[in-house]
Write a structure and sequence with these properties.
Blueprint (H helix, E strand, L loop, with lengths): L3 H8 E8 L2 E14 L2 E8 L1 H4 L4 E10 L2 E13 L6 E2 L8 E4 L14
Antiparallel strand pairs: 1-2, 1-4, 2-3, 3-7, 4-5, 6-7
Length: 113
């Protein structure tokens, strides 16, 4: 059984955003919840990291048999038209979520699944 810090470390991803032809780096967390009896898996990050982006790269730690393969990464790039961040309705709250199941599945094309 993994402990809480290990679980949090495994759910953390790197978010690299291109905006105004410059690169910005942030982090996000993969989070699973149930809404209206439907399981959703999302990335949670700060709104200021992902707003007004031109493109985005997500970097995950690869896993095998539900165990992280430290040092082995999966990098997936998306253009602006492929992603739809949902911002918190209160403009003062700096949070955004992205539903992973609504993203084009580019992991298969990398031979990882």
């Amino acid at each position: 059984m993994t402990n809480i810090p290990e679980q949090l470390g495994q759910s953390t991803i790197r978010v690299i955003v291109k905006r105004d032809s410059k690169l910005f780096v942030g982090t996000g967390f993969v989070f699973k919840f149930v809404s209206n009896a439907i399981e959703k898996i999302v990335i949670v990050t700060n709104k200021h990291v992902v707003e007004n982006l031109e493109s985005m790269k997500l970097i995950f730690t690869e896993a095998q048999s539900d165990l992280p393969m430290y040092g082995s990464k999966i990098e997936i790039e998306y253009g602006k038209s492929e992603i739809n961040w949902i911002f918190h309705p209160d403009a003062k709250i700096d949070l955004a979520i992205l539903e992973l199941n609504k993203l084009p599945n580019k992991v298969n094309s990398k031979g990882k699944i």
